[in-house]
Amino acid sequence: MGYLVLARKWRPSGFGDLVGQAPVARVLKNSILQGKIAHAYIFSGPRGVGKTSMARILAKALNCEAGPTPEPCGKCNFCLGIAGGSSMDVMEIDGASNNGVNDVRELRDMVKYAPSSGRYKVYIIDEVHMLSDSAFNALLKTLEEPPAHVVFVMATTEPKDIPLTVFSRCQHLPFRRISAKEIRERLEHICAREDLKISRGSLELIARAADGSMRDSLTLLDQIASVSSDIEEELVRELLGLTGYQNLAALLGAVLEGRREDVLEEIAGFADKGADPRQILKDIVKLTRDLLVYRLSRKPDEALDMGEEDREVLGSLAASVFPEQALALLSEFLKAEPGLKFSSNPRVALEMAMLKASYFGTFLPVGEALRKLGPAPSRALEDRPSLEDNKPPARYASQNAFSKKVKDPDTAYPEVKREKAADTPGIHERPEVKKIKSAPEARPEEAVETAPAESPAAETTENAKIPSIIKEADRLVGALAERAKNPMVISAFRTAQGSIKDGKELVLSFPKGMNTELFEESLKKDQKWIEDEASALYGAPLKITVSGERGAGFSKKDLVQKAVAMPFTREALDLFDGKVVDVNERK
Question: How far apart are the first and last CA of the chain?
Fold first, then answer.
């Protein structure tokens, strides 16, 4: 007899031999004990996790001479025939090559015949998702009401491709990936039985390379054992093209610390050993993910499936990284994967991705950066915007003259004197408000009373203090923009140029050709509050009027440009990462 590969030689023969699928085994064993055997099952999961092996074990349990039993003997004629693939009552069908409606019709004709010698006829359809739609439809009626002696077991790696009409007629048992620890323990048992001398580190490497597949791990072990029966880590890395954990950690450490020369040297070292740049990036992604989990998890030893030595290396690397840094790096590496996959020069693409990420590694979280800067300046808390300010980001600066002239909050109202709070050193109080007898007698260095009680601003900002009298129109418009709450009113003041007419009227002028109807509606809606605020700031009664042409007859391109130029539109586009698709001029 020829050589039998390890994956076939060590195929599980009972429910207890199947590694990592205890929940599925428990369901099937209890079903057999209680006599509640379903007529159809769907086994779904990744490749090499035991779906077909479980189907054969189920067939043994149903037809064993001692059965139906959850513990098939494995020695009777039925068990040996099923294990050897010679049983007439267990049919294994390849769904990829028998996927037509005629194949299903032939199967449907065979179902009605009784078993030749066993209790049940078991039909195992592998890769069932490959069946055509017409084949699935032809199978529906038989699948829903098969003869009492028939059990269907359908195995698939793509359960989403199976029609819901089929799913609803079957019991679905999902198989999970097998952990590296379970694979390592199984390989250790097999190596002891096969007289293979293998180091624990080599088992770790094979288990991780298998990526949750027991069959893949046995295939890799078979491949390595054909070279030497004394297996060391260096041999495993060489044959499987794996990168050393220490070398990967050194590369990632150089990226984190921004040592770009070391980044290039590490990649050159990998290239000299013949490592695939795509595999290097894949390993770096996994290492960065483990690094992030190590920093965020309360119990990293349980969350990470790795050996003690690798965990120590990861711990030393995680000691100098913030979770925000690891998250930014992981995002950058994942973005680089598609480009590296299709690049004509993968090494250059890898170097570019690593060098770009090295700049991210030097960034600090805001809180940590402030802590490193030391005590904050005296007006740090005062200048920090609050939710009530309703101010747009600094990059959307006001377009009026006031915002251009005044950039520092402390110079906006130079005549206002600020005093430090006695009990909070380094934090300014709001400017003190002084009452005046009448508006005409007020001096520039004095303050005015707050807005009348009936205005909306006075109701929402009780005891609010306001700056001293402002006589310049542009500064007055800017001050109103800072105090407004309605976004449309804020945008109107930030877009408009102001002028005072006869000392009684504040005229707002907008750029030529701009449609001002929306602004006029908002200003008119809050006109009472605006005029009260403007009068208080100016020190005399002021009316608000709008002067400017209405937009009419503009092209779509002009309207889009004008819409994008508006501050609140830019804020919305930036917030939702959007773009202006169409603009309709308001008539």
Answer: 90
- The model's confidence at residue 540, banded by pLDDT at 50, 70 and 90, is confident
Distance CA 512, CA 257 (A): 53
Radius of gyration of the CA atoms of the chain, in A:
38
How far apart, in whole angstroms, are the C-alpha atoms of residue 533 and residue 205? 73
Whether the CB-CB separation of 486 and 480 falls below 8 Å is answered with no
Which tens digit of pLDDT belongs to each residue from 303-312? Answer: 776 767 777 8
Nearest CA among 253, 176, 568 for reference residue 391: 568
The owner of tokens 């007529």 is: 39
CA-to-CA separations, 358 to 261, 329, 333, in angstroms, rounded? 11, 8, 11
- pLDDT over 90 percentage in the chain: 23
What is the rounded distance in angstroms from the CA atom of residue 215 to the CA atom of residue 212? 9
**Strand 121-126 vs strand 90-94: parallel, antiparallel, or unpaired?**
parallel
3-state secondary structure of 505: strand
Question: What are the tokens at 171?
Answer: 């019991």
The Cα 183–Cα 162 span in angstroms is: 30
Residues 126/91, Cβ–Cβ less than 8 Å? no
What torsion, rounded to 10 degrees, do the Cα atoms 518, 524, 526, 531 define? Answer: 130
511 to 237, 400, 519, 534, 538: CA distances (angstroms): 69, 11, 13, 22, 24
Under a CB-based contact definition with an 8 Å cutoff, are residues 18 and 50 in contact? yes
Decide if pLDDT at 431 tops 70: no
Task: Using DSSP, state whether 388 is helix, strand or coil.
Answer: helix
Tokens of 236: 């495993």
Q: Which long-range contacts (CB under 8 A, 24 or more apart) does 562-565 make?
A: 562/513, 562/514, 562/515
Contact 255, 263 (CB under 8 A): yes
From CA 530, how far away is CA 509, in angstroms rounded?
16
The pLDDT of residue 448: 41
d(CA 15, CA 53): 9
Structural domains of the chain in order of their starting residue, each with its CATH number: 6-174 (3.40.50.300), 180-240 (1.10.8.60), 245-366 (1.20.272.10), 393-547 (no CATH)
Lookup result for tokens 């020829």:
2
* 103 closest CA partner among 130, 63, 73, 79: 130
Higher-confidence position of 227 and 429: 227
